[in-house]
Specification:
It is a single chain. About 45% of the residues lie in helices and about 5% in strands. The strands form 4 sheets. The protein has a two-stranded antiparallel ribbon. A two-stranded antiparallel ribbon has the order 2-3. A two-stranded antiparallel sheet has the order 4-5. The protein has about 350 residues and is mainly alpha-helical. The radius of gyration is 21 Å and the shape is globular.
Length: about 350
């Protein structure tokens, strides 16, 4: 409980600071400009390969659920930028600088440098670095993380960064890869804008996810949980609409790298924020027939005895919540949660 209280308090502090320095507002404005000046796609299409198992092992998504950095956010924003600019089957090329006006750094929010000793944010980051410098460092860190997904057998790197004469990374010349990674051949699998057909192999992400700040304020495990639900809502569309979806614990851990606590916390926060909801219940007979038709990623241990039936929480994705301002919604809900956690701590102390 203490960890949850401190974590929530820290998150609220960061949100407050980003609200004060209008960092999320600035990133939203930059993303809206890309959208308005481009093709104005209502949805950004993500190939489900990013979520699927990797050579029988965990997905690439599982390696992007990190406590620090913006690697997952960067890849999703890069897909947004590509599909605002490119038509289906067009190959990605970088047209943005890394820093400065209209750059990659402009597309991301940052809270700034926090001084734990004084409990305050400094007007500039350490050693004279500005907020612009901090965002640039975030972007470069994300590129290193995405490049580091590679391996000798099959290169799963989601970006390719060429090297200079002294083997230094030439960040400005990075290349975006497809959701499966760079590939095992000499020619890399450069990102190509997908066709927007609605199959389970495609995950439609509403543009509001980027334009209203959700991409900036959700943490990586919440984004991963939400993407899994988006995928399940496509993969088991009838189930999702009729009785909701859920994920078996073993598959959740092995495929997506989401531990039970991260998954349950992610589900709770997404529900608080209005991005998913508890599904309505149906009769057991109806439920069993539905699961028989759409089973693989649901629990195959639904009936654990003839007397007792295991009933997991079932959810439905509610895209309408994305139309709200992410900072405003998250601050409201996290403030309410902080009050509850503080009250619980007070009772324990009493």
């Amino acid at each position: 409980m203490a960890d949850a209280r401190e974590s929530n308090e820290r998150r609220l502090r960061r949100l407050d600071q980003m609200d004060k320095n209008r960092s999320v507002e600035g990133a939203n404005r930059a993303l809206r400009n890309l959208w308005a000046e481009g093709r104005k796609p209502p949805y950004i299409v993500l190939r489900a390969n990013l979520l699927g198992p990797r050579d029988g092992g965990p997905s690439l998504l599982s390696r992007l659920v990190l406590p620090k950095g913006i690697a997952l956010r960067f890849y999703l924003v890069a897909a947004f930028e590509a599909q605002c600019r490119l038509g289906p089957e067009e190959k990605w090329t970088n047209v943005l600088p890394l820093s400065g006006p209209g750059s990659w750094s402009d597309l991301f929010a940052a809270d700034g440098a926090y001084d734990a000793k004084t409990g305050t944010y400094m007007p500039h980051t350490v050693n004279g670095r500005t907020a612009d410098d901090l965002r640039l460092r975030q972007v470069q860190g994300a590129l290193r993380t995405l490049e580091g997904l590679g391996s000798e057998q099959y290169d799963h790197a989601l970006v390719d960064i060429p090297r200079g004469k002294r083997e230094q990374r030439l960040y400005q010349s990075f290349r975006l890869m497809r959701e499966t990674g760079r590939g095992g051949t000499q020619s890399p699998k450069i990102y190509v804008a997908p066709r927007p057909h609605w199959r389970a192999a495609r995950i439609p992400i509403p543009a509001h996810f980027f334009l209203n700040g959700w991409a900036q304020v959700l943490n990586p495990s919440e984004v991963a949980t939400w993407l899994v639900f988006k995928w399940l809502s496509r993969w088991a569309e009838k189930n999702h609409r009729k009785s909701g979806v859920y994920l078996h614990g073993e598959r959740r851990t092995k495929m997506f790298g989401l531990r039970r606590d991260a998954w349950e916390d992610g589900c709770q926060r997404l529900r608080d924020f209005g991005l998913i909801r508890f599904a309505r219940t149906v009769s057991q007979a109806e439920d069993a027939r539905s699961l028989e038709a759409d089973n693989s990623y649901f629990s195959d241990e639904l009936v654990i005895s003839s007397r007792k039936r295991y009933e997991p929480y079932r959810y439905q994705v509610t895209d309408r919540g994305l139309e709200e301002n992410a900072v405003k919604v998250c601050k409201r809900e996290l403030t309410f949660r902080q009050q509850q956690l503080d009250q619980a701590a007070k009772h324990r102390g009493a």
